[in-house]
C-alpha cells in the first residue's frame, strides 16, 4: 500500500507534467524489462528488446542488482539531454550513499560500480553511453507514440478536474485508490507499505506508458514529489500501427470536439466551426460550450457574432505552437 499525505498547501500545488519526460520513461521501460509479471502480454516484447540491447547497456543492469535503482537516477527533464545532465550532476555524497544502499549485504560489487562510487570520470561516461544506447533501442522507436498518449492522458486529467474536481481526478488515475482525510491511498501492489509525506512541497503527476506495477515515486528533499503512475493501453508500445495524435485525442474528447479544436488554428465563429466540422450550428455551439468549460477555448462576442479561440492548453494537446504575447501561458 502506498499512502500520499497532503497538506492544505499541497492541494494547491498538484500539477500534471505538461509533457513526457524521456529519462523516467526509459527507466520505467527498463524496470518492466526485468519484471517477471504479465508474461503473456509482455513476454514477446521483453524477449525482442533483450535480444536487441547492445552490450554498452550492461552498466545499467549493474546499478539495480535487486531491481531497485539508486535515487540519483530519479530525474525529470524535458529532453533526454537535460535528464542525462541532471544525473551526471548528482552530488558525490548522494551517489556514494545510494550505491551503498542498493549493494548493502552483497558480497560482490562490480568494478564499474566501485568506479562510479569513487567518482571516476570514465565510469560516468560509460553510464551515459549505456543510457543513450538503451534509449535508442527501447524508447526512440516509440517516443512519438508516448507523446501522443501523454497528450491524451493530459486531456483526460484536465477534463476530470474541470468537471468533477481534484479529488475525483486523482483517484481516477489509479483504479481502486481513494482519497480521504488528506491521504491518497493506492491499492497494494507489493507486500510492503510506503508513506509519502508531501509537507507542502506539492506533487507532480507523470504518466508512464511502460510500467504496469504500482506507482514509481521520486521523493527527494526540498523538491516536489513526482509520482509516475501506470497509464496508457496496458499493452507493450509498438511503433507499427501507432495512432496519430488526432486519433489519441479523439479517443478522449470525441471526434467532433477534436475537429472543432483543429479548426481553431485561428479564431472562428460558431457558423464557421459548424461548416468545417460538418455539423449544425446548435451542435457546434453545444460542443464549444463543453470545450470552453474545460478551458480549451475562449469565446468573445463582437457585435452579433461570437468568435472562438483555442487556448494554450488546447494547442499543447494538439501538438501545435501555443500563441505568443498576452495569450501565452505564464
Automatic annotation (TrEMBL):
Gene3D superfamilies on file: Winged helix-like DNA-binding domain superfamily/Winged helix DNA-binding domain
InterPro entries listed in its UniProt record: ArsR-like_HTH, HTH_ArsR_DNA-bd_dom, Metal_resp_trans_reg, WH-like_DNA-bd_sf, WH_DNA-bd_sf
Keyword Transcription among UniProt keywords: yes
Domain HTH arsR-type: 248-322
Origin: domain of life: Bacteria
Keyword terms, alphabetized: DNA-binding, Transcription, Transcription regulation
Name of this chain's protein: Winged helix-turn-helix domain-containing protein
Amino acid at each position: 500500500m502506498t499512502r500520499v499525505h497532503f497538506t492544505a498547501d499541497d492541494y494547491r500545488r498538484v500539477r500534471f507534467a505538461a509533457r513526457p519526460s524521456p529519462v523516467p520513461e526509459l527507466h520505467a521501460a527498463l524496470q518492466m524489462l526485468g519484471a517477471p509479471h504479465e508474461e503473456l502480454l509482455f513476454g514477446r516484447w521483453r524477449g525482442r528488446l533483450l535480444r536487441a540491447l547492445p552490450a554498452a547497456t550492461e552498466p545499467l543492469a549493474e546499478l539495480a542488482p535487486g531491481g531497485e535503482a539508486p535515487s540519483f537516477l530519479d530525474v525529470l527533464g524535458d529532453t533526454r539531454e537535460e535528464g542525462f545532465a541532471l544525473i551526471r550532476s548528482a552530488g558525490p555524497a548522494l551517489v556514494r550513499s545510494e550505491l551503498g544502499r542498493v549493494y548493502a549485504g552483497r558480497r560482490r560489487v562490480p568494478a564499474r560500480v566501485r568506479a562510479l562510487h569513487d567518482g571516476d570520470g570514465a565510469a560516468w561516461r560509460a553510464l551515459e553511453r549505456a543510457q543513450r544506447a538503451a534509449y535508442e533501442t527501447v524508447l526512440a522507436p516509440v517516443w512519438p507514440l508516448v507523446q501522443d498518449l501523454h497528450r491524451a492522458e493530459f486531456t483526460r486529467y484536465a477534463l476530470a478536474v474541470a468537471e468533477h474536481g481534484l479529488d475525483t481526478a486523482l483517484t481516477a488515475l489509479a483504479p481502486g485508490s481513494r482519497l480521504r482525510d488528506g491521504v491518497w491511498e493506492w491499492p497494494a501492489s507489493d507486500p510492503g507499505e510506503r508513506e509519502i509525506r508531501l509537507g507542502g512541497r506539492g506533487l507532480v503527476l507523470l504518466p508512464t506508458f511502460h510500467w504496469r506495477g504500482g506507482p514509481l515515486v521520486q521523493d527527494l528533499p526540498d523538491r516536489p514529489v513526482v509520482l509516475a503512475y501506470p497509464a496508457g493501453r496496458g499493452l507493450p508500445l509498438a511503433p507499427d500501427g501507432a495512432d496519430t495524435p488526432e486519433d489519441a485525442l479523439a479517443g478522449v474528447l470525441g471526434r467532433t470536439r477534436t475537429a472543432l479544436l483543429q479548426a481553431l488554428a485561428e479564431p472562428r465563429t460558431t457558423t464557421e466551426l459548424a461548416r468545417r466540422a460538418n455539423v449544425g450550428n446548435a451542435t457546434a455551439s453545444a460542443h464549444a460550450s463543453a470545450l470552453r468549460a474545460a478551458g480549451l477555448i475562449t469565446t468573445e462576442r463582437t457585435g452579433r457574432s461570437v468568435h472562438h479561440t483555442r487556448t494554450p492548453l488546447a494547442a499543447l494537446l494538439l501538438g501545435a505552437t501555443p500563441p505568443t504575447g498576452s495569450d501565452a501561458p505564464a
